[in-house]
Structures
1.
Amino acid sequence: MGGIQSGQVDTVMREDRVFAPPAEFAAQARIGSLAAYEKLWNEAAADTEAFWGKLAQELHWFRPFSKVLDWQEPFAHWFVGGQTNVSYNCLDVHLGTPRQNKAAILWEGEPGDTRTLTYLQLHREVCKFANVLKHLGVAAGDVVSIYLPMTPELAIAMLACARIGAVHSVIFGGFSSTAIAERNNDAGAKVVITADGGWRRGAQLPLKANVDEALEKSPTVKHCIVLRRLNNAVHMHEGRDHWWHEMMDGASADCPATPLDSEHPLYILYTSGSTGKPKGIKHTTAGYNLYVKKTMEWVFDLRDEDVYWCTADCGWVTGHSYVVYGPLSCGATVLMYEGAPNWPDEGRFWEIIEKYRATIFYTAPTAIRAFIKWGDKWVDKYDLSSLRLLGTVGEGINPEAWMWYHRKIGRERCPIVDTWWQTETGGIMMSPLPGAIPTKPGSCTRPMPGILPAIVTDSGQPVPDGQGGMLVMTKPWPGMLRGIWGDDDRYRQQYWSKVPHHYLAGDNARRDADGYYWIMGRIDDVINVAGHRLSTIEVESALVSHPDVAEAAAIGRPDDLKGQAVAVFVTLKSGVPNEELKRELKAHVRKEIGALAVPDDVRFTKALPKTRSGKIMRRLLRDIASGKHQIGDTTTLEDFSVLASLQKDEE
Ligand code: WTA
């Protein structure tokens, strides 16, 4: 049985297409050649602290730092002794410059209402709201939960907290009252900010009602601020609940940013652990701010004329780092959209790109696979010629989906940045730099300057290039999480114990001969067939390259003979879900990657179970495929009807 060491993963993927950065793009880019990237990366690697210390001069400092890094593994203190403020770096630095009257936020609500906020206007709103928070007794270090739809007020609330040193905890609008209460209690939140509702696919989300229920079980919360979005009747609890607009009416627009220690906590963001209690990932001030600003510049090669659209909700880390803090630190014009991509029809995103002449579009593979399934006719109706750069985040992108994105949306002109990172990493860790690094479909290519990844076995031994293993980081970086809120043991346990002295990302990956990284899926999702450890994404990508397949999820189910057998769940964009197609898909996998990975079971389904941020929940599929009646934790599941129909098919 395969003589590989524990922690290694076999690769069966063959992908050799390479796309050089378009010459016109490279000519104008900040980092415009592979040589320039490598020079920068090498310089950074030679002395990471000197590298970050020099870049940190780009932030505004109320008081300079005296030391770049104090590393008490696994606890990092970056820019020791310095004082800065993230809200200042996002707003005040642009005042009195030509950006003052530039649009900071171009917003479109789902029903089609629109708003524009310039940097000056956004600054004013943030100052006023910061005074509202102060008026309610919020002080530096207090935790504020934010449960709002994707409106400008969501960004305003985050920036207002940052301005006075309150720690925000944004809770995605799709979460239930139980999830809100759990987060309020874990963080000891003092205030909750919500709305009378929000729009999603034409329906009204009962945000305030959810909060009311949550507050019955959230003893630390003293005040609730309610934004009027839908204008519908909501219950207002006397003494506890306050209307946003009434509080803002009398608030002063004078609120200087509080000088905060470099390591002052900026936010907590809960991510679902694979089991049990959600983890409050903690990010702090200066290092995070620097990291999102620099990666924004490197990866998106942002320029002042750009209309930049990241489709993520601020309930996720992508919304924190690349809707709010990264782009605003760079003085970008950020496009923000409240609602669903298929409302009122499947052309909505393309309509928005045409209308605002968006130049950069950053979205998730799950969305791209949905666009492919919905059909090209929606894309063809709109003029997408304003786009110059495309990005993806959240999951691996299957090479065929990448090719569709490249041809259909990018018209073969736009580089694609496949960005690998995590809530824990704060910002993008590996990605092509669009003017410098040739892209390969399915690879997040190379690490950012200052980032030193490695691929290792269970015992921390490096694996040879071409072989899969566990992805780790060998050096701390400024954007890294500073811990799990209130749980240092869990932090140590989860990220710093399996492989000594390295940050364990929890993903498998391999590096090819060109030094390119290929993410192979979560460590826990590896499929072990007759001693061969297969990566989920490779089997899935082979299936997605079949013309009838829209999406696929591969998992291992117990098998007496082989240890595990490969089971795949497939959604179709065309074709008939019958035995013949099953045989054809098996033959297709055999042709693409070989007999080893041929699925034993192929199951057609209308949809796959996903998390609310669009990741396939392979764990639930494992439970179903192995015939378990007790399905594990489903709190993060996006659509329960999917699970119900999968279970029904089972019987
Ligand atoms: C996965 C999202 C492959 C990965 C920013 C990671 C990816 C987890 C990619 C973090 C990518 C994210 N290619 N896999 N480009 N981006 N992932 O915390 O498994 O929501 O560990 O952060 O998503 O998800 P999170």
2.
Amino acid sequence: MQVIILPTPNDVAQYAANSVVDVVTENTNSILGLATGSTPIALYDELVSRCRAGLLSFKNTKTFNLDEYIGISECHEQSYRAFMNRHLFNLVDINSANTYVPLADSLDPEVLARNAKAYESEIERSGGIDLQILGIGVNGHIGFNEPTSSFASRTRIKTLSKSTVEANKRFFTKGEFQPHLAITMGIGTILESRAILLMATGKGKAQAVKDMIEGPLTSMCPASVLQQHKKSIVILDEEAASLLSLKEYYLWCEEKRQQLHEGNLL
Ligand code: F6R
């Protein structure tokens, strides 16, 4: 796991944007895995700016989002489809037919299970994800894989934890129905991505970040599974990194990695 600690959330977004640009420009038909939530908004803003400045094109890119709520329609402002349209898809040159978000606008469990299976097949048919962007929940979840989710899980219906429902309350108006179910990519699905980039910012994420990087490999902290991925990069701001015991070591490693990159081995 590569741990990168940067001064501010904006630096985190810039670093993540550079990684996305690399993947999109290096692969003729790049496949990105995307996340919603507050954390990646600054990344999407940056990608939109670069696209508008002609520095980046999504014309040949396909995207797969991690998750979608069950119980609200795609047109609902808080659906993850609407979120992605608003923050990225409608603002860049991507072909909307190449943007996939799990189809969750049914209340029939069999239809939802079929949609989840079809999502897996679509990822596979596309050749797999080149770079998966992740955020992290305060309880260590990735996608909507809550604590105790199997590391082998595939895209499926998942019940959100009460703490996740509580954390996401801020997006819904008082008294409005708030979903407690979602279709989410599984941890096994996420792990098949060729590279994973997790972003975390703010003090509120510091404990989850510590558990993910320095805690034991445990389904009680689903993000700890990234310790086992061959190419996982975690980008943190100072606040999110504030509880790490080996913080100085991660900073030192990045300094040495940079020197190595410049051909300076000693
Ligand atoms: C959303 C998702 C979630 C979020 C996590 C953090 O697609 O997959 O795992 O990344 O809940 O959310 P924020 O960034 O709002 O703190």
3.
Amino acid sequence: MRKKQKSMLARILAAAALLVLLHFTPADGWIRFVLYMVPYLTVGYDILLKAAKGVKNRQMFDESFLMAVATIGAIALAVYSGSGDYTEAIAVMLFYQVGEWFQSYAVGKSRRNISELMDIRPDYANIERDGQLVQVDPDEVETGSVIVVQPGEKVPIDGVVLEGDSTLNTSALTGESLPRDVGAGDEVVSGCINMSGLLKIRTTKDFGESTVSKILDLVENASSRKSKSEDFISKFARVYTPAVCYAALALALLPPLARMLVLGQPAGWGTWIYRALTFLVISCPCALVISIPLSFFAGIGGASKAGVLVKGSNYLETLSKVRTVVFDKTGTLTQGVFEVNGIHHNRLEGEKLLEYAALAESASSHPISRSIQRAYGKPIDRTRVADIREISGNGVAARVDGIPVAVGNGKWMDSLGIGYIPCHHAGTIIHMAVDGKYAGHIVISDRIKPHSRAAVQALKAAGVGRTVMLTGDESRAAGQVAAELGIDEVYSGLLPAGKVEKVEELLQAGRGTGKLAFVGDGINDAPVLGRADIGIAMGAMGSDAAIEAADVVLMDDDPMKIAKAIKISRKCLGIVYQNIVFAIGVKLICLALGALGIANMWLAIFADVGVMILAVLNAIRALFVREL
Ligand code: ADP
Ligand code: MG
């Protein structure tokens, strides 16, 4: 419990004790009034100050104002009527503060829960200095430094392993406890926990640019992107509170005036003012104002525990309405790790073809390029390569040892005016031209991710009616993958711009029948991620392009998480609607009872605090998403 919460609790308890004590103290007139003001001010002075400040700044229609007017009014009424019954006004203030205390406790707790559960912020980095390990602030470590991570410690900064073998626990990042083996040369991302061996890592990024910092930023900033429901609530409160105040004023004035002037009866001012004050207490909108943002906050926290980063509550809202999911193929449904199956029609001697391919591809980050370099296996001397151009969805062109080399698909050969020999083998065909002449092709094949098929089925079970695959690959390879996965529609041979067009068509066709999500790996498809109603990227554990372009990031590249994200969002939105309906419903009933004079102020404050506590407890349910 924080200090502020502790002192608030102390004030509440002290005021309650005083109130009980005064109940047994015989006192009358002014002495009684002064005695009762002690617990009233003890528990409520900050609310009164807030209300006064609001009036001074002409922004007075808030909850503090409602509470101040209601309680001061009740006290004035007690003085005026000579009843000396101040207990009710004090109790209203007391219970209101109990509600406030509970709310700040719950918010604080869920915030801490989230950061604890995403316990990834590293506290220090170890650096070797004169044979000694020194702990330094990760912020102070420069890119390219060597850090040491001992077993049991968190990797503080992204980098590459220089020395040592170990197993990393990635569960804090991905929500899945799949241990990953790493050795010299492997990339490691911050936030993982080193389980077994000692690792020496050369950092490749600053702490601020590392995966951990990015994730923490995302989650912390997520709550600033407001959803429609939250917007609705703040607009609602802006109109609602003044409306309630005027309604209360009308309730206090009109019926007594009518009785006096029209019916010629005694006005009964006291009764109607009391009813108006009760009406004010009942109408306090705190349950709504607090529980809706808290529900979204908990939903985002729950999702990040499951390895799904959602960049704002608006995206959670969109995600819950997704009815069409469009996939990119390479790197999304397939692993994006190609194996070389064969080299045909090779017009060069020995390994030359693969060597030229690897050199020409040396600047590309496309999965095909990385796979070819892996197959080549030897270090690449970049000084031999010049004039590199990469044409998205086609291939690359470069000069290797001064000779022009082109690597890519049939389309690319066509556009360069080079005749090529088609291949009858299954897989992706990488044609090569060297010095303006066709030089053969490399057949490579990708593997489908182990969960892709189940992921498509899970989406269908979750009510996603339409699944579509878009790819730049040729139709034969594309058709095979789609058939194997049970995807409804395939469009192949698309350039990145073609993918945007296709998504626009699908958006048009699906208008009014729910939202469209595009799932990609962030390579070549950033524009599409932006164009869809919601862009979901494979995080590739830190791929910058993906994390920036997307609205939702799947930390472990597992397509199963798409259905999970949708389920999490639906649960969260369900809770939001439950809270809206429940809080407004109870309010309306109490308002009606209050106006009729059936409800008194005691009932009003119990209803208000009760609704708030239930709504907040309900909101916190959004944090628990394991079983979905
Ligand atoms: P996908 O839609 O499956 O993610 P891309 O749009 O990234 O595929 O690429 C489509 C096709 O373009 C690839 O199948 C390949 O034939 C060709 N291609 C793209 N980039 C390269 C590259 N760097 N080297 C060789 N071929 C490439
Ligand atoms: Mg791709």
